[in-house]
Every structure is written in structure tokens, then in C-alpha cells.
Design goal:
Layout: H1 5-16, E1 22-28, E2 59-62, H2 67-70, E3 75-81
Antiparallel strand pairs: 1-3, 2-3
Length: 85
């Protein structure tokens, strides 16, 4: 949410090479435009859309976010198996 797309992609490569089995992170399941930002800014991300293209998560928990009159009601915590992202 706070990293540029390039920095996220670099972090994902580091996570894949870390030996970890799972990645738990926030995703916004109904957002479909992952516009780029400068690292340090913020925007909602759907990690299943371009440029990340994650497969469906192993588990997902909707946070039922009510901020900004429900604009982010799709905010969720998702668990991915790293070998499937």
C-alpha cells in the first residue's frame, strides 16, 4: 500500500528467496486499478491484478472496513503460499 510497484515487486522477489512458506498481507479484493505511486504514499492494491498477478489466496479474511463510508469495504487480510505467487 505504501511502496511503489517496482519496490513491491523487488520485495516479493526477496520474500520468495527468503525460505518463508507464507505471506500474509493486506489486499483490496474489489479494486482493479493498481496505479503506481512514489514509495511512502498510499493507495489500495489488489495483489491479484496487474502488475502482481497473484493467484487466489490460500485464506482470506475481510476486515469489514467502514472508513470513508465503506469505500474500502473490500479491505482484507490474505494468506498466500509463497510458492504459488
Amino acid at each position: 500500500m505504501h511502496f511503489s510497484n517496482k519496490d513491491i515487486l523487488n520485495a516479493i522477489e526477496n520474500i520468495k528467496s527468503s525460505g518463508s512458506k507464507y505471506l500474509l498481507t493486506t489486499t483490496f479484493t474489489n479494486h482493479h486499478m493498481n496505479f503506481d505511486i512514489v514509495t511512502g504514499d498510499w493507495r489500495p492494491l489488489n495483489l491479484q491484478d496487474k502488475p502482481f498477478n497473484f493467484a487466489a489466496p490460500f485464506r482470506i479474511i475481510n476486515e469489514n472496513c467502514t472508513e470513508l463510508n465503506g469505500e474500502f469495504k473490500d479491505k482484507s487480510m490474505a494468506l498466500w503460499e509463497i510458492d504459488k505467487i
